[in-house]
Amino acid sequence: SSKIISITNQKGGVGKTTTAINLAAALAARLQDVLLVDLDGQGNASGGLIRNKKDCYPTAYEILMDKEDPAKAVYSTGREFLDIIPANDDLNGAKVELVSAEGREYRLKEALQNLKNSYSYIIIDAPPSLDLLTVNALAASDSAIIPIQCEYYALEGLSQLINTLSMVKKGINRSLEIEGVLLTMHDRRTSLSYQVMENIRKHFKGAVYNTVIPRNVRLAEAPSFGKSIFEYDSESAGAAAYNMLADEFLRDNSPE
Amino acid sequence: SSKIISITNQKGGVGKTTTAINLAAALAARLQDVLLVDLDGQGNASGGLIRNKKDCYPTAYEILMDKEDPAKAVYSTGREFLDIIPANDDLNGAKVELVSAEGREYRLKEALQNLKNSYSYIIIDAPPSLDLLTVNALAASDSAIIPIQCEYYALEGLSQLINTLSMVKKGINRSLEIEGVLLTMHDRRTSLSYQVMENIRKHFKGAVYNTVIPRNVRLAEAPSFGKSIFEYDSESAGAAAYNMLADEFLRDNSPE
Ligand SMILES: Nc1ncnc2c1ncn2[C@@H]1O[C@H](COP(=O)(O)OP(=O)(O)OP(=O)(O)O)[C@@H](O)[C@H]1O
Ligand SMILES: Nc1ncnc2c1ncn2[C@@H]1O[C@H](COP(=O)(O)OP(=O)(O)OP(=O)(O)O)[C@@H](O)[C@H]1O
Ligand SMILES: [Mg+2]
Ligand SMILES: [Mg+2]
Fold this sequence. Notes:
Two copies of one chain form a homodimer.
Chain A: E1 3-7, H1 16-29, E2 34-38, H2 44-49, H3 60-64, E3 75-79, E4 82-85, H4 90-97, H5 107-113, E5 121-125, H6 132-140, E6 143-149, H7 152-171, E7 177-186, H8 191-204, E8 208-214, H9 217-221, H10 229-232, H11 237-253
Parallel strand pairs in A: 1-5, 1-6, 2-4, 2-5, 6-7, 7-8
Antiparallel strand pairs in A: 3-4
Helix pairs in contact in A: 1-11, 5-6
The structure holds adenosine-5'-triphosphate (2 copies) and magnesium ion (MG) (2 copies).
């Protein structure tokens, strides 16, 4: 059976999509069967890995709305061990359409039920909000990875994020855990980065990954070629960091 | 009478809050009466300018829900010519509570009706989403400033953003215009930045500000002291860029 992990933080631009794509790619390279679910109407995870996202039907929207068989929304990314459920703008409509629907928080969880057995890991890229899409992601997940930018506003949003996670854990998904807190866009040249890092490590203690993702322009360039960082520049600091993260992640998830 | 301007882009982390705070501060320094409205449940615009946001009641939430007189939600920032309507986590609840309310898109517009006459400019910091809060901001506005990061994912989200603006213009607010498109976090050292800039200028033509905001760590440090960039480091590249933006903005808005 597989483990389902959401990449979530309501603060925008903290590296959720970059982490979802590159962790998924790194796990696939380590022969883990991975499904990446794009749950953000911007469709950045889809756009960063596949070129034909506009031609895909059905997508995440149709499976949340229970209009199509979830298996039909699974597409190959052209890489071994890495499939994707893409997303597009329709997903923004789902939030409104599902408001009064029965069991609206569990739509994704139900959709992934039959897919779980074909993958070792399912990784969900969540949007920058605390809305129904993010709640669906957390309701379907065993755990959540929280990317946190080494910047001041990251600290401000923490308490809201923790509130949301505990609310979902109490009311919707008792087994939800924090998989880890990932420090991103760390810039060795600025003292702000170190101050925020210190603060986050004090706040989350052992939940923070040893791996810190540096600010590295190669990570920002890779999606414009539809490539993971490993395909685009395997020698880059970004590739090294996401490789380290994948190793740390697998150590946490392998049987003793 | 005053002009109401939303700072909006559903892509996260592109510099909406940084632009809202520093443009508002720069206009206040040019003796324009400015009200900054924080419409993001993260409350970053509030946290970046005032220290006591947790003590404020009422806030943006109460005025959207029509529970308090809007004038009561206006607070001084301690700077001349710059007031704020702060926000906190409650605002995330408004989205759900307002779903079936009468005239839910026009709540902010109505709330600002009586405040308009006391300010030359009202600047609204919108959240990273295309939801009811952003629609409220656009429905209340004369125009929108669109910050766009000089990065690949910025290009992907453009068509959705344009769709949303034209949807609001057709259905909710006929007079909504694009005030300008602002290129942010430009990094002179990377070719990606120049490629994206070129692409955006081709796409938006004359709507793009001549002013380009460089990536400048001082802009990221200032909010941790609750200061605008002008108070924190008036000699920085960030301060120079936002001063230039304010001048360009006032040129666009001054009578011939
Ligand atoms: N470590 C890094 N170094 C440099 N750039 C990065 C890094 N991680 C991500 N980026 C770039 O920063 C921007 C924001 O990252 P990304 O889109 O992954 O964040 P996000 O949290 O998914 O954003 P959103 O909130 O909009 O979903 C993107 O342009 C991305 O390419
Ligand atoms: N020009 C810049 N140079 C360097 N850092 C910047 C710049 N502009 C903004 N930042 C920093 O980048 C991060 C994102 O900026 P900001 O929070 O203003 O974006 P936003 O669009 O409001 O994000 P959200 O989508 O979460 O509302 C913040 O930590 C901010 O301090
Ligand atoms: Mg994303
Ligand atoms: Mg913001």
